[in-house]
Amino acid sequence: MNDTEKPADTPSQEEDFGDPKTYDPDFKGPVANRSCTDVLCCMIFLLCIIGYIVLGLVAWVHGDPRRAAYPTDSQGHFCGQKGTPNENKTILFYFNLLRCTSPSVLLNLQCPTTQICVSKCPEKFLTYVEMQLLYTKDKSYWEDYRQFCKTTAKPVKSITQLLLDDDCPTAIFPSKPFLQRCFPDFSTKNGTLTIGSKMVFQDGNGGTRSVIELGAANGINKLLDAKSLGLKVFEDYATTWYWILIGLTIAMVLSWIFLILLRFIAGCLFWVFMIGVIGIIGYGIWHSYQQYTNLQERPSSVLTIYDIGIQTNISMYFELQQTWFIFMIILCIIEVIVILMLIFLRNRIRVAIILLKEGSKAIGYIPSTLVYPALTFILLSICICYWVVTAVFLATSGVPVYKVIAPEGHCIHENQTCDPEIFHTTEIAKACPGALCNFAFYGGKSLYHQYIPTFHVYNLFVFLWLINFVIALGQCALAGAFATYYWAMKKPDDIPRYPLFTAFGRAIRYHTGSLAFGSLIIALIQMFKIVLEYLDHRLKRTQNTLSKFLQCCLRCCFWCLENAIKFLNRNAYIMIAIYGRNFCRSAKDAFNLLMRNVLKVAVTDEVTYFVLFLGKILVAGSIGVLAFLFFTQRLPVIAQGPASLNYYWVPLLTVIFGSYLIAHGFFSVYAMCVETIFICFLEDLERNDGSAARPYYVSQPLLKIFQEENPQTRKQ
Predict the structure, then answer these.
(1) 703: how many CB neighbours lie within 10 A of its CB?
(2) How far apart are CA 204 and CA 165, in angstroms?
(3) Secondary structure (DSSP) of 679-713
(4) pLDDT tens, position by position, 2-59
(5) Which pTM was predicted?
(6) How far apart are CA 274 and CA 546, in angstroms?
(7) Whole-angstrom distance, CA of residue 541 vs CA of residue 539
(8) Chain-centroid distance, C-alpha 576
(9) Are 607 and 351 in contact (CB under 8 A)?
(10) What are phi and psi of 82, to 5 degrees?
């Protein structure tokens, strides 16, 4: 038996994963004569979009965003709405905030007390009884107090009327507006929580209450701290927005420079990446060690993160030794991982460098591809805005629904619907003295209102489908443009004009169904993940150790499945851009091609993505170091940074995150370019043999490096 012969019962690699491509003398790149693919899925996709538009129009007719923007009083009227009696009354006032701490609030999602719109919050302590006594001497007390009463309120003339009067709150205390609602003006005095410098106050019913009895006082105090933090963050943005834009502009220019340099000095630039990343991480380790050493002199720094708990003042964590020690350990681990990857993947780095050079040439010949992420960003922004607007209109659809609320919690009719116009004349008011008919929410009993939860699910699903479709469209269009570059024998003379525009037109005209098919699979997986997270949130209190373990396993499995499908889809879109076949056939061909070259794909792709990831990190890290030195006044030689910042990490993190997103936009085009060229190269090796009749389209440096690893290719 010859060396080239195989036993009959032993399947070959080609038989396992499909036959390699045979030579086609007419094939010269992406097929021009093609037909529409996956028409059924295209029709379903278009019908879903039409239904989505109709849903948005119906929600726009029934919804009212003012219900989300303005607080609503007990009668269902908006506070601060123009053209109404409440136009100048923009704040919601609670008659008895103590009742908002009862368990019924958690059940009914509505505070069981009268709520009215006011122009300002109370500024002093005063009970209704005290006001009536002072009113006999000075009429101004009633004028000050009546603004927190119903419009029908009048001064009482007897003790009996005083006890039965429910048009005014029994007491008021110093408050401040927060989220357009009056909340107690909490402050701390010698470490004790107070309201208006008092720890106790009169409730207006003859009793004395403590601040702690408000129940949610601690939570409200934390909300106020969060508000203070938000104001400080806003002030920092207002002070540094100009410098943030400059930093993001530098990041964009730096990304452009790196992409241009990759074409000429990819190898040297790769080692610049590596040295830069290792140096940035090393600087982080050194800085963490310096901070850790300096804090050893402070006795308070020995506290742990667990000791201080959750704090809204983030700077407190940076005063602890443990924080900087954790930073130092994490950075050391990352440094070791990067160095080990360089050692063990040094051979495949050569392949990645050649692919990067080829990608740079392709982008250099088709520079319009670097602008395409802007189109993707615009389309994604449109989808996100439409989804948010539709969700808001759906959430605010309906008419005001009023519920019976018993402040004391002892009424058999509690939580039943009622009519505030005739409530006092009904049997419910007689059976439950003191019960209120307050506004609860917006809803209705029509067919539309009954299916609003279903419409929310549909809104979310179509949103996910559209988002993934936009991403798939970008990948297919870019793949078509870069495939046109690869299959041009004489570059750039044989490259047709406007390859990106042509590839985009083909994807829209012929392959909308195929792209919708692939994006539908991703959308379904993401929808399952969201349902899983929703069930986990709803059943969190009833879960045991086993259920939590199964939840983590499912979450991990869905994450792996989603990333695997995204990888296969991306390669299927490349095959669609080249051959114009349907999604299933293209996915099958891409899978077989990858399996026939599994070692080349597994290592080369990952190394290439690793190099591009290092580029993103270097861009974001370089800008981050400059921003850190600038905002902390450590770089006065170039420019004087802002000196009145509350938190320097606010503009710093914004610049780092924004720089990474900008670099990701540029390098994502590069990644798609490299992957398309690599897939075309594998197709080229199977289609041609390097002879004069069937020459390779690949560049000589890339062909040479693979010939060194494959003796059979070198022999051909």
Answers:
(1) 18
(2) 13
(3) HHHHHHHHH--SSSSS---S-HHHHHHHHHH-HHH
(4) 433 333 333 343 434 555 555 566 667 788 888 899 999 999 999 999 999 999 999 8
(5) 0.70
(6) 43
(7) 6
(8) 30
(9) yes
(10) -70, 145
